[in-house]
Amino acid sequence: MSFSLQTLKDAYKVSPNEQYYLLANHPLFHPWELMIDAHLAGLHLNHYQPLRNIKERIWAIDDPSTERKLLADHVAGIITDNFELANDVKKSVLV
Question: Is the separation of the CB atoms in 38 and 5 below 8 Å?
Answer without folding.
Answer: yes
